[in-house]
Structure formats: C-alpha cells, structure tokens
Q: What sequence folds into this?
C-alpha cells in the first residue's frame, strides 16, 4: 500500500482520478489551537498545547503505525515549514520518504570527503564547504528539462538536482531545484 500522502493540518491520501486529476482524500485532521487561545476553551474540552510541528510528527507516527507492514515505498509531501529535524526524524523512523521544499534558512554543505584508510576517529557526516544556492543556480551545467502536468496543463519545467548535507536531515539528501 504505497503511494503519496500529504501531512500538515490534515493528513490526506493523494489519488489520481481520470476526470478530475489529483485529489486529496482526507484521513485525519488535527485542530491547531494557539497557546494563548487555550484559556478560552472549557476545561473538560481543553487538551495540552501542541505546536504544528508536534501535530505533524503525531500524524507521521500514526500513519507509520497504521500502514506498518502493508506497503512498499511511501512518500509524504509537506510544506517547507515542516522540514524540521523532528518531522524528518519521524519520517525516517516510520520508513517514509519526505518531500518538501527546502527551508529558506537551510545551511547546505557539500558531501564529506572519504576518510583516508588508516585514519582514526569518526568518519565525517557533513562536508566542510558551504553550498551557495545562488552560485549553484548560476552554473549552466546540470540543468534538466522535463514535461510535467501542473494544475491540469502540460508545461515544460527546468530543474537541477544535486546531493548535499544538511544538519536537520542528519546527513546527505537529494535536492531538486
């Protein structure tokens, strides 16, 4: 039971419909209540405060438990605001592939160099050189063009992929621009 799922305020299964294109079928929704608004809720109905990130982690854990052993590859799509260490770790623990836009404040680094044979100590996880997205975009090499369907229309998009390391991801990841 693989496929594509969307996580955020609502957990939904993305499906393809022959007449209507891609649809999101909601499975679970969690109401986010700001901490300052909790006092307005009657005590019997009040629940402990949870951030949106906490709710997303809870949804990923629920999804992982619900689909345990019943799937092949499972992809989860989130907004860039949810691309945090906690959400990434929850996705990894539940054997989910997380797809998101990169956070604006992401400090990307190159891949670590191979450790010379015989050198003692821990192998490096992150590269030393900082990756500048502006410089990476300026290079003409590596760009690819592909036809895609966006909002029901076929369009040609140009993109670039590369490997990088990012601390919240825990190591290297594939980045598509």
A:
């Amino acid at each position: 039971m693989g496929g594509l799922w969307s996580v955020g305020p609502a957990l939904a299964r993305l499906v393809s419909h022959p007449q209507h294109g891609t649809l999101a079928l909601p499975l679970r929704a969690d109401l986010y209540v700001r901490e300052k608004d909790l006092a307005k809720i009657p005590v019997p109905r009040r629940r402990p405060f949870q951030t949106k990130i906490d709710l997303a982690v809870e949804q990923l854990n629920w999804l992982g438990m619900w689909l345990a052993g019943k799937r092949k590859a499972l992809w989860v799509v989130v907004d860039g605001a949810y691309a945090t260490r906690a959400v990434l770790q929850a996705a990894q623990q539940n054997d989910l592939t997380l797809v998101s836009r990169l956070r604006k404040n992401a400090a990307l680094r190159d891949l670590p160099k191979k450790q010379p044979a015989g050198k003692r100590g821990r192998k490096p996880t992150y590269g030393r050189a900082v990756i500048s997205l502006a410089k990476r975009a300026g290079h003409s090499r590596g760009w690819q063009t592909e036809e895609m369907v966006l909002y029901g229309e076929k369009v040609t998009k140009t993109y670039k992929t590369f490997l990088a390391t990012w601390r919240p991801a825990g190591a290297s990841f594939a980045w598509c621009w």
The chain has two domains: 1-101, 103-177. The domain at 1-101 is CATH 3.30.420 (Nucleotidyltransferase; domain 5). DSSP finds three helices and eight strands in the chain.
